[in-house]
Amino acid sequence: MEALYNIIDVDFKDISQYPDVMQKIWNPESGIDGIIIRNVLSQAEIDSIKRDLHKVKDLEIRKDTGLITCPRAFAEIASESENDEKKLKVLFQEMEDIWSRFQKEFEVPLNDKFKSLLSTITGSWTPEVPKGPDGVGICAPSTFKRMLPGAGSLIAHCGNWFHNMWPYIFEHMGKACILKGQMSFFITIQPAEVGGELVLYDVQWKDAVEKVDPVQNVLVMNSGQIRDLEDPIQTKTLRLKPNAGDLLCFAGGRIWHKVSLNQGSEDRITVGGFLTPSIEGNKIYYWS
Length: 288
What we know:
There is one protein chain. This protein is an alpha+beta fold. It has one domain: q2cbj1_9rhob like domain (Jelly Rolls), CATH 2.60.120. It is 23% helix and 28% strand. It has 7 helices and 17 strands. Strands 1, 2, 3, 4, 5, 6, 8, 14, 16 and 17 form a 10-stranded mixed sheet that branches. The chain has a 4-stranded antiparallel sheet with strand order 7-15-9-13, with no helix packed on it. A hairpin with a 4-residue loop joins strand 3 (61-62) and strand 4 (67-70). Helix 3 runs antiparallel to helix 4 (85-105). It is globular. The two termini are 36 Å apart. 41% of the residues are buried. The model has no long low-confidence stretch (mean pLDDT 94).
């Protein structure tokens, strides 16, 4: 049976075989929808990151009963800015200060490590973290997510769907980035023992751009049909569960997806964000 999506699976030591894979994932005509890069982080690096996370607990934000992020991501910045450019500049400057602290607190230099990895698989694109308004501050290069046992999950969404939810910050981002079709990435620090899979649905943005309700996993197809993403008769899925230390990048802007409930006894911990090419076509921005 033909696979629902084409997800490359490769070990970190063999990544030179795919020098422009990010450009291909971003292109919906390439036939490549994502990549899992195994063993990007060693066990010693994973253990170090988990220890160092305790040093920045004061920066954690409780999103709901099952999700904690650290530091704040674009959605929190969008809400806190209240569509005011001065406040947005302050928040982006605070983020630059936060990441300076991260560089000091974490023994593993996550930002440098990820930038180095990207530079080997993005072809002609140079990896860079986007700046705030008028070059003030930065976006968060990535965000940790802790999905708590018995409660942590993410509802069905795709990156393109976010643009209407937080238009002000995406208007700013759109001055530098090609946002439509943004890619999603994360490194697994600690997988859920049970559940916690990334679930890709056989529905893309070109098929559906609306949900019946933001909190329900039910779409209004462009044809007018109602599609229940949780009904296996109506919807096919591909479930992915990388191991600790693996990086997964996929076309999260156009593919509807969710993270299933963490049914284990420990937190599901990841660090990640989004990837978007620059308008000029010579850079790839990574941010969260």
